[in-house]
Amino acid sequence: MAKRFSNTQLPVSCVGHNSDVYQLAFSKVCESGYYLASACRDGKVMLRHGDTGDWVGTFQQNGQPILSVDINADATRLASGGDDCVARIWDAVDGKQLTKMVLNSTVRCVALSSKSDYLAVGCLDRKTGHRTDKVLYMYALERAESPMSFAGQARGVRDVIFCRDDRAMLSSSHDRSIRLWDRISGKQVHSISLPHHAKSLELCADGRTVSIAYGHSVVFVDVDRFEVLRHHKLPIRLIGVSLHPEKKTHVCAGSNRWIYKCDYATGEVLETFYAHERHMHCIKYSPDGEVYASSAADGGLRLWQQTVGKKYALWDARILSIEEGDDEQGDADDDDEGNDDGNGDDEYEDEDGDDDDDDDAVNYDGNGDDRRGAVSVGGGVGVGVGISIDVSGDGGEGGAGGDCDGNNGSDCDDVEEYGNEEGECEEYYEEEDAYEDGVAGSDDADAQSYSYA
């Protein structure tokens, strides 16, 4: 069926990836501009100029899926993690691997502190017999010491960020919780319980506003006071949300492959357009707020203008019109293959379990210090649910863990396996399946109840 792109938006399409682009991360604005890192199922992390999409370099080790990436403020350090149960720190200028942390589970998320002296690592839960492992760790990168572990999640960790001037961390889990941790003591300080697990977790440029997407909802939380600031509802199941640095608007990635730009104060939808041919995984605002980037399951990575028609980077001042096809947005919960929901939590290709992968045989293909890169940018045409907040600080029980045995968790009791159209083995968390069946949580926009313990 023919699909349409925005009749005003003309995206910049960044080529290079050939499979699911799970995660995006922008640096801050530095002397040479700002940069965009992307993590892909094809085993590559790519670094680009964030405003133009021009390629800078590619980080690759053993070809196993990379699920998460983060980049520090001045784009000199990059962290990645994925299916090989290893978190890595890279020199983002010359492409050298600086260090690696070997874990017992798939690395689902990584986060660098603002000074790049700490690394937070969240893992998917794995069970082996009666043994369980913690699934959230913090490494002191400038000291040779064992990582600090954080107990409390009942399921695997999906996202983690540093907050409160790096004195705390905020994590989201497949147990449908958001937890605030004290970095020094390792204790849980606050928690939020959601009816569905959070699909995205992001700290705004102000350093205190956190945006959370789950179900059909977007919630903004003041992480210093740990209070809900706003709660907006959309008529579509969401994959992710990102808040403009000046808190003017927020952009949402929908499960129907459309992007929705909304007013931050009121939640009113200001602009919406069809963005990708396959389901989306991530959406992020640039640090200057001039563009936002989206990624999808077909390797697509696109840059979109905040102000259409403004002269910026590769866009000129003309408002370009693109020929339209089908005007319908489609089913509000339309996924590509029925169970493709674009969450990046589950669809990992089953590897052969070879233990002989050469972790140190990393490969960097890039331009090094000149930071200009070769232009490899496609021309780009076409392209109220109740929340309970616990402030008691009760950490609860530890999460599930286990060995990384190359089978991507086939021993895990917490997942169900489905075959996709290519016959691959894909893992879907049970709460995600329950949501697909319409039995988990409430979608009543008026059913908002914020309770503080």
TrEMBL record:
Entry annotated with the keyword Lyase: no
Stretches with biased composition (Acidic residues): 323-362, 411-436
Biological processes per GO annotation: spliceosomal snRNP assembly
Biased composition range(s): Gly residues: 376-385, 393-404
Pfam family of the protein (one): WD40
WD repeats mapped onto the chain: 59-100, 150-191, 273-305
Disordered: annotated span: 323-453
InterPro entries: WD40/YVTN_repeat-like_dom_sf, WD40_repeat_dom_sf, WD40_rpt
One cellular component (GO) term of this entry: SMN complex
Lineage: superkingdom: Eukaryota
SMART domains for the chain: WD40 (SM00320)
Any GO MF annotation of the entry: RNA binding
Gene3D superfamilies: YVTN repeat-like/Quinoprotein amine dehydrogenase
Protein name: Serine-threonine kinase receptor-associated protein
Gene source species: Drosophila navojoa (Fruit fly)
Taxonomy of the source species: Eukaryota, Metazoa, Ecdysozoa, Arthropoda, Hexapoda
